[in-house]
Records
---
Amino acid sequence: MKRLRALAACALILNCMRAFGGAEQSRVATATEEFNPQRFEFAIESGYLFGAINPPASYQIGAEFLTARVRWGVVRSDSWFRGYHQFYVSAVLEPIFRGIENHYFGFNLGMRYNFVQPGSRLVPYISGGVGAGAIDSHPEVPGGQGQDFTFNILSAAGISYNVNDHWKIDVGALYQHLSNGGQTDPNPSVNLFGPQVG
């Protein structure tokens, strides 16, 4: 008798699920099958960058970014090039923990490419961009930036993990170059490498 009641309850639940369309599928699954990625993303990203090739000062910078990304085209292919482009705009806010200057504020415009494989939540990416900003320069200190106005170049590579329809986690490596583009002589530049999460 107990088995009959259990079977009847299961049959009722299955019929209700069929009648009302079943459980809603996750957009992560349908995005990889139909391949229609999100059109807009907003990201908060953070990194810790270490200076390289920066004589005479060694730099350590906390890289903080507020980034908006807009999908710029989809590559539908059966190869590993399958993916989509994104145009991005980032606000750059960087405290300088070790180095001659104390902070850097700016913006960066660039492109990102996401390599999407069917059925995978892991999405490798590469990105690069250019921008400008202001640093609290100390031109009287050898090796310091010669003026407040500087250009920046950013490039990154990493992997995104799609947690669900609305959230994803990025982990990667970041390169940043700060320079005033030869507007002062000498023109010291800052080259930084480090990890980034977002």
---
Amino acid sequence: MQIELKNIAPKFLEKEKIANSQVWQKKLFFEKGRKIQIVAPSGSGKTSLIHFLYGLRNDYAGSIFFNNKNVKDFDNIQLAKMRAIHMSIVFQDLRLFKEHNTFQNIEIKRALAPYHSVSQISEMAERLGIKNKLTQQAETCSYGEQQRIAIIRALQQPFDLIVLDEPFSHLDENNSKIALNLIEEEAAQRNASIILADLHELPFFKADTTIYL
């Protein structure tokens, strides 16, 4: 899988922020198997960039190429395929189904494009310290617990790239490291890339490349 950004820039962002960015209006190529950290202060367009990469929005100038094809030209079937087997994501707002319990939230994703067995959901939950929450309604879990649910859910599918938008914002450093270790192990199994975007540089994430948005 290859992703290339060619001179993209949000149509709504101030010119000064675009000019000072290492992403906007630049040419970037994300190689398979690499770890990329994007440091993005509030208001710099971090979440917009994540949504552009995932094909959720196209209100930007320039082009994003996925395997040499412009994402703006994808139809719904192509977008669904990209998201099902090539790109996984942890949204900043998590997007859990709060009417379902923790296990159901994870299993819904796993069943769509299974990479792991059902039993591994329990193993991952135990590793991240939320095994006792699997039967609990997602909306009653703390935000840090919900973040771990979203991380486990994202790891259930095949992917060549996993994109994470402030995935550890409500976790302490120890739990953040445990979750990151799991993410890195899963990415290594797939020879997949990691793009992790956060407000600040995370010292425990040993990225191959750090880019300042």
---
Amino acid sequence: MSKLLFGTAGIPLSTPPATNGDLQTIKGIQRVAELGLDCMELEFVKQVYLSKTNAEKVEKFASDANIALSAHAPYALNFNAREAQKIRMSQSYLFSAAEVAYICGAKSVVFHPAYYVGDTSEQAYRTVKTALAEVLEKMEDKGIDITLRPEVSGKSSQFGTIAEVANLCSELTNTMPCVDFAHWHARTGVYNSYKEFASVLDEISSILGKDALDNMHIHISGIEYTANGEKRHLPFEDSDIKYMELLQVLKDYNVGGIVICESPIMEEDALLLKHSFDGLALQG
């Protein structure tokens, strides 16, 4: 059976403050290990806050603790911006996140690709693909071997349907989707049942091949949403997300990779996911 790892979107809330010059990121990784979780996503969502020197320390600690790392690039990205300067800035932010995450030992960098800004899906797709290809070329030139993961988005104004993300990854090297099931539920108002969750995996495997299910990066939480899509993340118990049906699909499809919990009570709900999944696995 493929290995599925469970962890938090950022430093767990129960992590004690760092003292004596320690890095809070390392304290967070230590707390993840203490909780019995498997992975942590480094949240570079406002800025890439680690220096290269500190990133090397993070890599060593995470490796010794056997905690898998990924990262989330800054939110301020739009590879379909009207202004060329904003696209160049987005490329710079994503490259910086990839560079530091790679030094940290992370295998993936998640990012929000773009807004439509009045364009059709096809128009935005072409612009996003061109901009990302340039980032990937620079990464290859610099020896940065890390997977870029465009994320399934939660609002109808954002580029990032399942098909858009999967097709983009089929045409670019070193890319794979980040499938945020809460986002997709919020964006569509549906996709909240065993059959619908399974259809997402079927669509991904039909575009990228079944091997794509061996190396997934998944986001999940409860979510509040409107007709326009996501509003805010919620604990599972306060939402309508059918996480047990999702976990059953992940088990039945033998999915491998990383599951990051973005709940406001991140470690509690990450442990709920892990223990629930382990319970399903024991049932055979």
---
Amino acid sequence: MTQPVLELRRLRAGYGHRRILNDISLSVEAGEIVALLGRNGAGKSTTLLAIAGFIADVEGEILLDGRPLTGPAHQRARAGTGLVIKGRSLFGSLSVADNLRLCDLAPAALLDIFPELEPRLGVAAGQLSGGEQQMVAVARALLRRPRVVLLDELTFGLSPAMARRVVDAVVSQSRNEGIAVLAVEQHIHIAERIATHAAIVADGEVKLHLRRDELLARAHEVEAIYLGHALDV
């Protein structure tokens, strides 16, 4: 049996006295994309932040290639995690090229994933469109060759055409480079396009694990979880 790149075992986390995650257990293998689906407040983004080392109050196990993933965020990044959060985390006053150089990445490498950004390399990142900024943020994470990339609402605020472009790039890089991806998503149709599997989250717990082909077939169960209904599954 293949060892997962990322494995969460009964992950619990919160902020101060407020518990957000109660029992998150899942795994992601190399070249696999797992979508975390659920309504706002379900604990999806908190799961990513706990993995990446941005939450101190964490219990349970986080394993990367079978070894405990611990320590502050910068140590976890060096261990092989990449994170793309909403807001893209680019330095708006710096050029696209300089944003990449800060991560010891060659600007030309960006063009292997998004060649259409060549005319934008010298432009300040803050002057890019939202879709272009997301391209840069996603490429920056992928080009570091992490073991796992954590994506928080990959297509948030993007036009349908730009969303397809970014999604296709992530799927291609994951397959070709064997990168494991854990992607927070709210929309089932996006998850069905990008994911090999999905974990449906509610009240800080994984309520349902589904293959991609099951997402639409069992849409009523997924909808029930979104709406907070009890399930008999």
